[in-house]
User: Fold this.
Amino acid sequence: MNILSIFTNPYLWASTIAMSVPLALPAIGGTFSERSGVVNISMEGIMLISAFVSVAFSAYFHNAWLGLLAGVISGILVAYVFAWAAAKMYANQIVLGMAFNIFASGITAYLFNAIYGPEGTPFDTPKLPDVRIPVIDRIPVIGQILSGQNVMVYIMFVLIILSQWFLFYTTIGLRLRAVGENPEAAETAGIDVVKMKYLGVILGGAFSALGGAYLSIGVLNSFSPEMSSGRGYIALAAMIFGKWTPVGSFLASLLFGFATALSYTLQESSISKNIIMMLPYVVTILALIGIGGKSVAPAADGIPYRPKK
Amino acid sequence: MVKKVLQSILMPLIAIFISMIVGGIVILITAKQNPIYAYMALFSGAYGNLMNFATTLTNAIPLIITGLGVAIAFSSGLFNIGAEGQFWIGAIVATYLGYQIKGLPWFLHIPLIIICAMIAGALWGGLVPGLAKVYTGAHEVITTMMMSYIAIYFSHYLLEGGPMMDKGTIPQSPVIQNSAKLSTLVPNTQLSSGLYIAILAVVVVYILMYKTTIGYELRAVGFNIKAAKYAGMNVAQKLVLAMGLSGAFAGLAGAVQIMGVQHRLYDSFTSGYGYTAIVVALLANNNPIGVVIAALFLAGLSTGAQEMQMQTNISGQLADVVVGLIIFFIAIEELYRIVMEKIKTRKTKLQPVGGQE
Assistant:
């Protein structure tokens, strides 16, 4: 196989974008959470719960949009509990995140077996639609890459822009960031630190839930235990590599998505797909230790804050 | 002293108790079975007879050794959550030396493997994450996690058509030499003399952490890093050392698992021991003796859950649900403080009223 022909194949680029969705959405979610000073490694667990709830509702009501809605609500509820424990109980956030991830992997596998048994989710579960974009559709190559993707791809693009604007060009966004940088000063300035942390974590939950729903009713119309397979952790890396910004998180997710897409395309060639899958993690470490511009976390990230009043 | 010990045991016990109740409610609603019957099946499946107990011990060995490693890092204020990767690295080294070196007597072959696996784990877990932390401030949670993924993909590369793949089509390594295998303790079970290694490791870590200057310094750094700096300790060196020791024990656990139980490497050989070990250290509050108790409890939970699944049709994944809840209820320790304070203030409020009457 000619190596170069792989890169001119529009399918590789189309699947790069498709693969980046379940990374970019939780990565942006994590950005909100960490900007408010809460490290939330439970993106993995929230994705899994949302993926399961989405499929269950989509199958039961025979409506994928209702499934998506239920998935996002489940993500918000789980994130609410996380926010309470992190902001009100001052729990260690890493420990908390681990608890949520183990719980999520257990409860989804347990309920999946209890409800659906060995046959799995119903075959006729509806999935979210793929969308053809009228004009772009006709352009060669570009059309093949940008048109005909799942609707979540386009929702993602809208959300990236909205998130960037929200975080850096609105007052609430400024307050959210202030809480993550210096909660004492923010509180002195009259900002409700706890409320902002709730907002950050819940937005994080909602975005992660969108990513989870995409896995079960966007790409597929079924659920399998552990189907998030570490994407929540990769999203964490993408968020750091993207320097805690929504656009950066997306670009980093594209890199990870590209590595995944390439590893599938190269399956026939002599280069091992496992070596390619390693690269994004190596790149993330290099980024963390400051090669190619330093990635600095919000100053109060991960430190529980006790309000003075 | 007694009060302090009781307090450190009480918290995990309360957390376990509440989690079992919540788990029981889940059983009642979803499986419509008697939770007490299910838990009894779980308990007897874990500790009920010699065979079951031997299986629980077998699963506890990697948890004890890796848990000790994680606890060392925790004691020094470091979150080593990449134990899974260090466990893999130890296993890779052990497997390679196990089948490649031929003709050595067991009393040389096994120690050689142990030393090399520990060094490999230490380098993987300590060098990169430890040095990155000290010199660039890169958070060890992320670096250890990334190193973990790299290790797992690396092992898949080695096995799936790579240099360590055995002849045939199954992605697995060749079986290690007999001279590298640990002897079996209980016939017809997988319990090996790795148990002795685990016990030895507990003793070594206990002495290291509580009876030596290095252990004192490691704990001092974890207790208050600024004070440790003022006292003239070389904090950077201690952090790298803590990560290195942590990785060394995870690597040892991987080697013991290969030499004692699996005898060859394949994709799913770990069952996530490296992740569960974090829970072990957490439950144990970083105490080496506590690590043994916590590992026996968690290993019993997973062994017993399989037995419960066979007897009651309740899916064994319930064990994960309970474990997740336990960590959650330990993490929100603030809640207990608030509840206790509420009870106290109610008592003091009631007293003056009683006095006036």
Q: What stands out?
A: Chain A touches chain B through 47 residues (CB under 8 Å). Chain A has 13 helices and no strands. The mean pLDDT of chain A is 90. Residues 21-229 of chain A form one domain.
